[in-house]
């Protein structure tokens, strides 16, 4: 069965974006950038592949699920298919159906949709963001990969937004970098 993997950048205090949804305060350090291009090339937007030297991204993911706020920056830039190398699903009750055949707008229950998606044949599914969608999908998350930046933001979009309901994960791997970032990989218990 396919896994839902929440792969996301976070501050030390648990924020994945600023209060306005921007995330440009996360630095792209050279040691981390090289690693991400090699280890997680499918999580890099298609338009950025040339800057990372990626010709054909390969890896574990063949689909990406994201919320509307995560999709909006691409739309604002005129990019309707930010991850053209993956099957793209945008969870939104307010967006009209996509005019781009590579992007499917999911207006229904995201939990039911992801359960169905996990039951289909294919590679793992990348949960790209954001915090509200991660909160709804928390029981379905099989793996959590956090790029933990040595930054304290104070406020913003939390890693997961939902009512108090603790979910425990087991640490499977840590990858530290000289720049201070640590990639933490957790599995569900």
From TrEMBL:
InterPro entries: DHFR-like_dom_sf (IPR024072), RibDG_C (IPR002734), Riboflavin_Biosynth_HTPR (IPR050765). One of its GO terms (molecular function) is 5-amino-6-(5-phosphoribosylamino)uracil reductase activity. Residues 3-182 form the Bacterial bifunctional deaminase-reductase C-terminal domain. One of its GO terms (biological process) is riboflavin biosynthetic process. This is Dihydrofolate reductase.
